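worker-03 picked up job from queue 'complexes'. Input manifest follows; two sequence lines, order preserved.
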Amino acid sequence: MFLQQLINGLSIGSIYGLASVGYALIYSILGFSNFAHGEMTMVGAFAALFAMTAANLPFPIALLVGALGSALTAVTMERFAYRPLRLKKAPSLYFFIAAMGVSITLMNTAIVALSATFRTFPPIFPIKTVSLGAISVGVIDLAVFGVAAVAVTILEFVLNYTKIGKAIRAAAYDSTTAALMGISMDKVCFTVFVMAGTLAGLSGIFRGLKYTIHANMGNIILKAWICAIIGGIGSVQGALLGALLVGVLETFIAGFISSALRDVIAFVLLIGMLVVRPSGLLGKATEEKA
Amino acid sequence: MLITVGINIIAVLGPSILLGFTGLFTFGHAAYEAIGAYTCALLVMKVGIPFPAALFAGCLAAMICSIPIGYPTLRLTSDYFIVATLGVGEIVALLIENMQSITGGARGLPGIPFYTNLPLTVVLVAICIWLARNFVLSRHGRNCIAVRENELAAECVAIDSFKQKMMANMIAAFLGGLSGGLMGHYVGILHPKMFRIIRSEELGIAVILGGAGSITGSVFAAVVVTLLPEILRDVVSDWRLVVYGLAVIVVIINRPQGLMGYRELTLQSIRQFWSRLTTGRRPAVPGVPGTGRRD
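worker-03 finished. Artifact:
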């Protein structure tokens, strides 16, 4: 039972993780939480759904279509909402408010264009389970975990071993100096939004596979934001750690204490955690300079 | 309709003081509204206390709750504060949903007597605007502005920034409780969904659109934000919220200071504007006090 819940928790945690990494990436470059991140997961899920139902594409290609759809959304919002603010050197609160505007726009466009009904993917993975010793694992949980692991490994590789990855890390450290050293911030932001969008799309698709797809699903992924904050804003590893932690804790609370109080306890933990360690698990403590 | 406008004006004054004058972007203001609304409605319905007393009790309950809520959260900065207030807002809504025996849970609390009427709302709106203005112009209000501009510098001139934030938060909670109480007795039914994150988001956006640091701006924005969707309902029907979202983006990019932007609409500024219109001259002494610019 314990191991079973742990696996469930890790599977949910990886869905959160795919989204929370995007929050961390964008925060590390632009210094704000992209409130519209949840809507990217929604776009990705819908793009994949329509690729499968309307265009009859096989699932792996639909997965790519979904990821591409969210990446495109991400790049568009960067170009039209955040770039003008970045060029004006606006304070981060303005970015946050613009993100709220983007979120409202995308969510309501989806509601108007696609109606607010709940949809599900056609069955892709067999609902049977694989038994590993005493426990049985759903095929979909394994798939989520596998895809998340591959995606994060690729992300880590790009960040650590490529030229653009080095540029992103430099910009995250100090964007002004990075720009002075000839790093194009436009290019850095473009790449970061493509990466964040792709991962968000994957997260949305797997959420849709595990539960349902609907126009309001962006708001639920706000929990991934909380994961990113718990891990320490702006830290990719922290965001992953926070996501797995929240996923596991949530499942344990739902399984052993009360499923109704699951979210209450999760939020109480969040606030308790912020009181004890205001900069998150792996976040750097910042001291205001005089 | 006018009553809804009035209730939203009172509700928006709280975030206006917090965001506009203290620099705290709150994402859980609806929690205080929920506390005020449920306290007031339950006192009237189950205990039988007269409405004005219950309304006041609701405000007090919200204000008292703001102390334990503010104590841990107000020490946080930037996004940590936003996400913590979001957490508080969701916790309150979820708790109400789970206390089925008292609050009716997710099905809502129906059958609240309709006590909120237009004269009462108008009087309360006037009093609240007047109180908010007085707070902002008082020593405490100026301290709050100092904290907003530069917390470290404010601390250096012996302003207890935590105390100021706490005070602003308590006043905002009181106003939130009042608007919640009025709302319950106007709509006649309370529902935890009414106080989820979307409500808090709406209030925050109203403050931004009206202009941070301006009471009249917030009031004006509350009127516009309440009425505009209703007016647009006939014209663009379903797309009105899309238009609303796009408007937020356009405003923040092109006119981030909002409609009023740190300026107040006062009688004096209107008179000056009028004399400039009629005589075509600027006022004799430029920059005299009373032009309303206080940043």
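worker-03 released lock.
The first strand of chain A starts at residue 129 and ends at 132.
Strands of chain A lie at 129-132, 135-138.
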